[in-house]
Amino acid sequence: MLRIKLVRSPIGNTKRNRAVVQALGLRKLHQVVEKEDTPGVRGMIQKVRHMVEVEEVADAAPKATPKKTKKSQEDSNEPE
Fold first, then answer.
1. From CA 7, how far away is CA 30, in angstroms rounded?
2. Which carries the bigger pLDDT value, residue 56 or residue 59?
3. Which CATH superfamily includes the segment(s) 2-60?
């Protein structure tokens, strides 16, 4: 697995480079994605190597970030 982080803005780069960054799943600065280590992904990283940081991680399941949930009214009405 590869952990890829967008560290430079694609603004000002070619349309092709912006498309590669988007294809890697990166939208915002400092966003991190984990991708399988394949020749295709390595090629995309090579094209935008000036905008990303890459580190190899152990073959573990990608970290799932907990999503924020709104408290239901039942939870807020219960006395503590």
1. 5
2. 56
3. Ribosomal protein L30/L7 (3.30.1390.20)
Which backbone phi and psi does 65 adopt, to 5 degrees? Answer: -85, 130
**Cα–chain center distance at 13:** 19
The secondary element (H helix, E strand) that includes residue 6 is: strand 2-6
Whole-angstrom distance, CA of residue 62 vs CA of residue 80: 36
> What Rg, from alpha-carbon coordinates, does the chain have?
18
DSSP per-residue string spanning 28-71: STT-EEEE---HHHHHHHHHTTTTEEEEE--S-PPPPPPPP-PP
pLDDT tens, residue by residue, 16-40: 999 999 999 999 999 999 999 999 9
Q: Hey, what amino acid is at 70?
A: K
Torsion angle of C-alpha atoms 68, 24, 56, 61, degrees rounded to 10: 40
